[in-house]
Amino acid sequence: MTARLDRLIDETVEERIAPFVVAMVGDSDGIRWQHSAGRANEHHEAGPDIVCTWFSMTKAIGSLMAIMAIDRGLVTLDTPVGDI
After folding, report:
1. When you count CB atoms within 10 A of the terminal residue's CB, does the N or C end of the chain come out lower?
2. What is the pLDDT of residues 24-61, one digit of tens each?
3. Distance from first CA to last CA of the chain, Å, rounded?
4. How many Å apart are CA 54 and CA 69, to the nearest integer?
5. C-alpha to C-alpha distance for 57 and 45, rounded to whole angstroms
6. Ramachandran sector of residue 63 (left: φ over 0; alpha: ψ -120 to 50; beta: rest)
7. For all residues of the chain together, what is the average pLDDT?
8. Count of H helices and E strands in the chain?
9. In this structure, what are the phi and psi dihedrals at residue 23, rounded to the nearest 5 degrees?
10. E strands along 1-84, which residues?
11. CB atoms inside a 10 Å sphere around CB 16
């Protein structure tokens, strides 16, 4: 499975869909998999230590937290927002 993920990331950069990609999968025991491809800028290869600036991530992070709360049984899709 990880070889397929590695290849997907490599192809994404090779096909110029994105200039670089850094991806990781982790759990409570730490990072289970990571891979990167491309150049973050003219001086640095993309990698897990590269610093990126994210803009307007409120919806993405809030949605992820909602999905995690649903997965953990803390709320359902029918839970009224006012109850949260």
Report:
1. N
2. 999 999 999 999 999 999 999 999 998 888 788 899 99
3. 37
4. 23
5. 24
6. alpha
7. 93
8. 2, 3
9. -135, 150
10. 20-27, 30-41, 44-45
11. 8
